[in-house]
Design brief:
Elements: E1 2-8, E2 12-19, E3 22-25, H1 36-41, H2 46-58, E4 63-65, H3 66-69, E5 79-81, E6 89-93, H4 97-105, H5 116-122, E7 127-132, E8 137-138, E9 144-146, E10 153-154, E11 157-163, E12 169-177, E13 179-180, H6 181-186, H7 191-195, E14 201-209, H8 210-213, E15 220-227, E16 230-238, H9 246-253, E17 263-266, E18 284-289, E19 293-301
Parallel strand pairs: 6-17, 8-14, 9-19
Antiparallel strand pairs: 1-2, 1-5, 1-14, 2-3, 3-4, 6-7, 10-13, 11-12, 11-17, 12-14, 15-16, 15-18, 18-19
Magnesium ion binds next to strand 6.
């Protein structure tokens, strides 16, 4: 089952179940369902989320063509929103061998000694960092940010896990862990500033329930950057190359750390964009993940 959120002028946020090329409006204030996060909070498992959403879909009266929602956000027109408003977004780091090699090569120690990224990759405990809140998260077609004090902000295309009550995996979406690599390279302790800023995370276009995704470690993921009408970068990876399992990462995240329902955990990147393709104002980033869809966002340089 695919869930989404969308905006309708005069009505505000709506909850949708995607059925082929249409979206069923399953918003139900009477049932306490005003958002996908509400739906997640009422269900203890992905199976329960599916059956609850199916029941709401059977009772839905309004159908909207997906194509009419898949456009730039505007208060005057219906449009997609992020598939949920995550109270917290977390990121996992150095979960692919390629990212370990890349990060090591770009620190002062690269190639000569064993550096922190080698230790992170090999450690039993994963690297987990606080990434964003709902207000810093962009939905489909909404602008993503590049800090004014960064000249090397990169897209990090990732599989993202949606966590429910008691750490249950409810489903998956696409995550873009935008990162100011120049700030992080200057000093690893600057990591929070390299990761957290306005529009630092994007997710969508839909949340696909765990049952429908099946094995999250067998999905093709690709990323394209478009500039002035032509594609300047294209890269891909399969999530089978991820060293850690989603359940393992969520297990570590929830250790002594109660995560509110709807928390998103972005699982790390295996697509390392070369420095010459640092994001610029006006670029458009497209990330496609098998079984989920394509997340498209324009890039805006932040002021101040
Ligand atoms: O340690 C830096 C962050 C790494 C990261 O975000 C990733 O591997 O995706
Ligand atoms: Mg990342």
């Amino acid at each position: 089952m695919k869930l989404c959120q969308f905006f309708v002028p005069g009505k505000g946020k709506r909850v949708g179940v995607v059925a082929g090329d249409t979206v069923l409006d399953v918003t139900s204030p009477r049932a306490g369902i005003a958002s996908v996060t509400d739906l997640i909070a009422t269900c203890g498992s992905a199976a329960r989320l599916e059956s609850r959403a199916q029941a709401l879909a059977r009772a839905a009266r309004t159908r909207i063509p997906w194509a009419s929602l898949d456009r730039a956000p505007s208060p005057r027109q219906s449009h997609l929103l992020a598939p949920l408003d995550p109270p917290e977004v977390w990121g996992a780091g150095i979960t692919y061998r390629r990212s370990r090699e890349y990060y090591e090569a770009h620190t002062g120690e690269g190639g000569r000694t064993k550096g922190i990224y080698d230790f992170v990759y090999e450690s039993e405990r994963p690297e987990l960092f606080f990434k964003a809140t709902a207000a810093r998260t962009a939905g489909p077609n909404a602008p993503i940010g590049v800090r004014a004090d960064s000249t090397l902000t990169a897209v990090e295309a990732e599989l993202a896990v949606v966590v429910g009550r008691s750490g249950a995996i409810m489903g998956y979406t696409i995550g873009n862990d935008l990162s100011a690599w120049d700030i992080e390279r200057a000093n690893p302790l600057f990591l929070p500033q390299s990761k957290v800023f306005d529009g630092c995370f994007a997710c969508g276009p839909v949340l696909v329930t765990a049952g429908e995704v099946g094995d999250p470690h067998a999905l093709e993921l690709s990323c394209t950057i478009h500039r002035e009408g032509r594609s300047i970068f294209r890269g891909g990876v399969n999530t089978k190359e991820m060293k850690r399992q989603c359940a393992e990462l969520v297990g570590w995240l929830c250790r002594g750390n109660t995560c509110p329902p709807g928390t998103v955990l972005s699982t790390g990147t295996g697509i390392l964009v070369p420095d010459e393709h640092a994001l610029a104002d006006g670029d458009v980033v497209e990330i496609t993940l098998e079984r989920i869809g394509t997340l498209r966002n324009p890039v805006r340089r932040l002021k101040g």
